[in-house]
């Protein structure tokens, strides 16, 4: 689970790979998704900023672009 301030909370045996909790964010975090191997995750902020952790590769972000609407979720394509 990801909190709006970037804090990550693990449960049910999920591994912790880091968080942005305590860091200054430009926009609140809105969603988290695990990579297919379970060895990392991505978080996304309302402004489109994506942060990767663990074995989840960074594949890009729209955090520096002006969006028509805020981001509300993230999905992994397997």
The helix fraction, in percent, is under 10%
Mass-distribution shape: globular
Rg calculated over all Cα atoms: 12 Å
Strand content is: 15-25%
Distance between the termini: 20 Å
- Assembly state of the chains shown: single chain
Number of domains: 1
The largest sheet has its strands arranged as: 1-2-3
Q: Count of DSSP E strands?
A: 3
Q: How would you state the average pLDDT, rounded? A: 94
Structural class: mainly beta
* Low-confidence residue ranges: none
State the major sheet.
3 strands, antiparallel
What's the SSE pattern?
A: EEE
Tally of contiguous helical segments: 0
Can you walk through the features of this model?
This protein is mainly β and 78 residues long. The protein is globular, with a radius of gyration of 12 Å. The model has no long low-confidence stretch (mean pLDDT 94). The chain has a three-stranded antiparallel sheet, with no helix packed on it. It has one domain. The protein is built from no helices and three strands. The protein starts with 28 loop residues before the first strand and ends in a 24-residue tail after the last strand. Strand 2 and strand 3 form a beta hairpin.
Keyword list:
single chain; 78 residues; mainly beta; three-stranded antiparallel sheet
Summarize, please.
This protein has 78 residues and is mainly beta.
């Amino acid at each position: 689970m990801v909190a709006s301030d970037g804090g990550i909370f693990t449960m049910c045996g999920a591994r912790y790979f880091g968080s942005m909790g305590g860091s200054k964010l430009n926009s609140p975090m809105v969603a988290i998704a695990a990579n297919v191997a379970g060895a990392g995750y991505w978080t996304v902020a309302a402004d489109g900023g994506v942060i990767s952790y663990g074995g989840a590769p960074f594949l890009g972000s729209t955090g520096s672009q002006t969006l028509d609407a805020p981001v509300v979720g993230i999905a992994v394509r397997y």
